[in-house]
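Data availability excerpt. The first of two example chains:
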Amino acid sequence: MVFSKQSSGLDEPTLSIPLLPKTSISSDSDDSPRWNGFVSESGIKRFTDLPLCGSYRSLAILSGHVGSVSCLALCGEFVLSASQGRDIIVWQQPDLRQFAKFGQGDGTVKALVTIGNKVFTAHQDSRIRVWKVSRRSENVFRLTATLPTAKDYLGKFMKQSNYVQTRRNHRRLWIEHVDSISCLAVSNGMVYSGSWDKTLKVWRISDLKCLESIKAHDDAINALVAHKGVVYSASADGKIKAWGRKNSLHCLKGVMEGHRDVSLNSVIVCEDGRWVYGAGSDGCVVGWESDLALENWKLVCDLRAHQMAVLCLCSMGEFVCSGSADKTIGIWKREAGGGLFSVGVIRGHEGPIKCLQASSYSVGGGFLLYSGGLDRSLRVWWVPKEYCAKKEGNTQIEGIEKKCIMVS
């Protein structure tokens, strides 16, 4: 048994069967990662050698994608990364060797999530594909369904009321996305999909049926995250919306508005749902604090985090990590009121950073951070949870000015 954790900000890790039994894992692959340090004679990172405080450490650069890395997911003993080149690579932990590769030819992969022994992938061709792990087949990750399913189509195509107007003189079934699916989230037995067609759709995992389609935003939906039954959607219309279930249907619980005419590219939820942060195309990270009912939101953080657009966010405890088109990763620490101050900047990618994932397991007084970029690489970093200033009273940490920008 392993704990399977979804992307940062989703519901708590749930006990599930591993994707594959550990006895099936081979370490003889020729696709070895390039290590940057902390390697033992056996080739495995010696996490015990990592300092208890200090700057970040680059542990590995993983290559093998034919296109830009677009999304990441952590699942037990595996790290999954997908690319715009239509390929999905499974990396085995802890040595991070390439274990399997699948999904080629099925459309550019925009998002992926894992639940139990299933992998859901969202594609630019407006379809969701479901992959099941097979322990008895050479084809380890086997395609089992494409959403909407044929059964779902057959049950709805005859009734005219199931069709909606999409473009001029175009009508489609409401269960279909009509543009690229940009994001996925998992919560309470449901998969949520957000699309550039401005809709949020709800799919039941047990039978893969589409239950609901919500006209959620006035522009493309760029990101989703689910936390304790509430789903948050971030859009190019500059808003983050919170959706909760009522009488088996989803209803709007609250709206957080960012900067005017600025797209929000990512959203995360921190500290038991108390704080929500959004990543803006103007280089800012904006944060809100909620009331107990999750209906009223107060702006608590408006931070110019990067020189270019912030493309992705993830969180780990009191830390928030931001990836940007300026090729850097910002490491921020959250204060009691929800404001953020800088504790470091990670450089090393040769292109914009599209996705981030933080591991929940503590390693040598820090945590592991995975980043994927348009340079086609997946990189692994060690981030300390305690930082040491060079001099007592010095406000510089690794050359970055410590700052906190809050809105009262």
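And the second chain:
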Amino acid sequence: MQYHKETNHSPISTCAHERMPRIGITTRNLCATDEYAALGVYIRAISACGAAPMLLPVTSDAAVIDAYLEAVDAILITGGDDVNPALYHEEALAQTQLPHDDLDTYEVLLISKAVELDKCVFGICRGIQIMNCVFGGTLYQDIPTQLPNAHTHSMRPPYFKPWHTVSIVQTTPLAKLWEEQILLTHNHVGVNSRHHQALKDLGTGFVPMAFSDDNLIEAVYMPDKTFVQAVQWHPELMCFDYPEHMQLIQNFVNAARDHMDA
């Protein structure tokens, strides 16, 4: 299955005396084989931006989570299966995937502690969803069922291609980062889309940065934190072909570099 085209994208160089930012990447527990893993595309994207990716195995041990956060400068919350609706006090719909309670527990601990410590945090797809739930937000469990007038958000491959557009909210960090792209495309920036759930009620502290062309929230940030941002699409799948999506990941790495000695 083709996710994106691999290209020769050289890592951002650092001076010999500089330490590379260490980016902790959330993993999944592959129960059938008792493995902890993350898709290689996240690792390649972080490496291409001049940071050291570090995989963080799933755990419910708060002391281990604390050790993770001491070892890394920033956290990438990756995509994956549905968040358990129990986290936002709802019964699961028939269309919602079976819960992975160990994963939910792990990410809730990791996100809440990272934000409390003002670590840089960037969420992708499931990442934006569980980050929203950690701070009291809710989700549409199934877009086709609950929002029948919305378009299809679960795209067909190739997954590195745009599927729909988003409009960027002015005065937000994403508007500043994508200023040239917004002017070029008249504020209709193409993104991919691999999800059937979406943000409904925003969690405490979050502000929208982008909306889909059918008015779903597609990006958020916390203005009171150094860098807490998340997007609903998958920039890691687009970044080697569309520079604006590499900008997103590079901006996250740059924030980690600026903040790592603070």
